[in-house]
Amino acid sequence: MAAAAVPVSDTIKVADAGPAAQAPVAVIGVGNMGAAMARNLLAQGWRVHVCDLVPERMQALQALGADSFAQPAQAAMQASAVVICVVDAAQTEDVLFGPGGAAEVMQSASAVMLCPTIGPHDTERLAIRLAQRGLHAIDAPMSGGPARALDGSMSLMVACADSVFDQHERLLRALSHNLFRISQRVGDGARTKLVNNLLAGINLVGAAESLALARRMGLDPATTLDVIERSSGQSWIGTDRMRRAIEGDPAPRAHMTLLEKDTRLAVEAALQPLGPPPPPPRAPAAGRRPGPRGPPPPAAPPPPRRGGGLSLPRRPPPGGAPGPAAPAARPPPPARGGPPGARAASRAARLRGNGAPPHRPSPSLEASILTVLG
Q: What is the pLDDT of residues 123-145, one digit of tens each?
């Protein structure tokens, strides 16, 4: 007896099945960001497996419908994708390849989303190890904080092969509707995240110093921040952290240690060599007769040291060719009346602001800023 044909309408129904009909997604590490991402997926009907060292975190997600597991391997079993939301590269390597790691049990052609802020070389190294097991790496660091991870408005910087992106696009867009397709080169997501976080740290420190200066000059910090938010000095992180400091809300939403880690990784990346090394000098063409003997040509100056966008020329070696003449020293200012000690004291007073104490944030604002810098 011939098998009955499947009606077209039933075929469409299967193809359009919701996320609950898909294989589960495992989220390894459900702290601030991981828990928010898991909650976002659960709210959309996805099946979610969670794993964390803190049982209370998993219990809170269990109450929302997640399945919790003590080991990453247990959570990754039968999962179509594993989302890694731990702190650093060492933890990422441990949950993937350590005892009870997820990579050992994942099905071939499954994907691992690398969401922590880690160095590009670590991302590339982990992707190679995953590929050796037939697994795909999606370089996908996120930014925006837990509230934006919960509502799907966080930024997701994705670098992976087009075929891998197409396979998991539905999950990626469920996690974020601010999804940026960086490139197909795994590691470029991590590079983009470091650039962003370095600028965030600079903006945060600048906002704190600027508001401390505003208060010292007798300005109202809240009014000053109102102006900054609508002017050229505005930054999202400055507004978020400084508004809470002004309002006396010291509750941390993120860890200062993570900002330190991210900025350190960005500086380390900036100190790496940029681009391929220069080609070696070419040998003389065959058959060319050497020219007359004479003094050797002067050696080419060494290439400048590269660090980030800076080119730092090297000093000439001792005995080498002198460089350009240094600018002449400025002549001392003409002497004025009064003993030298009095003139020095007057100059110091002017530098302090007509006798005012040196610039220092007020203790109360300084304490508030330090508590919310993260």
A: 999 999 999 999 999 999 999 88
Pairing of strands 81-84, 67-69: unpaired
| Structural contact between residues 316 and 322, judged by C-beta atoms closer than 8 angstroms | yes
% helix, strand, coil for the chain, step of 5:
45, 10, 45
Same domain, 30 and 100: yes
Q: What is the pLDDT of residue 342?
A: 53
Number of domains in the chain: 2
- The DSSP letter of residue 152 is T
| Residue 98 near residue 125 (C-beta atoms within 8 A) | no
Are the CB atoms for 150 and 127 separated by under 8 Å?
no
Task: Find the Cα–Cα–Cα–Cα dihedral 113, 115, 117, 119, rounded to 10°.
Answer: 0
Residue 177's CATH number: 3.40.50.720
Using a 10 angstrom Cβ sphere, with 0-12 exposed, 13-18 middle and 19 or more buried, the burial of residue 12 is exposed
pLDDT over 50 at 16, yes or no = no
Domain that holds residue 255: 194-270
Q: Is 198 helix (H, G, I), strand (E, B) or coil?
A: helix
- Give the range among 2-11, 72-81, 249-258, 364-373 with minimum mean pLDDT: 2-11
Task: State whether 129 and 247 are in the same domain.
Answer: no
Query: Rounded to two decimals, what is the model's pTM?
Result: 0.69
CA angle 175, 181, 185 (to 5 degrees): 115
* pLDDT tens-place string over residues 291-342: 445 555 555 555 544 444 444 445 555 554 555 555 555 555 555 555 555 5
Active site residues: 193
Q: Is residue 87 part of a domain?
A: yes
Same domain membership, residue 38 and residue 144:
yes
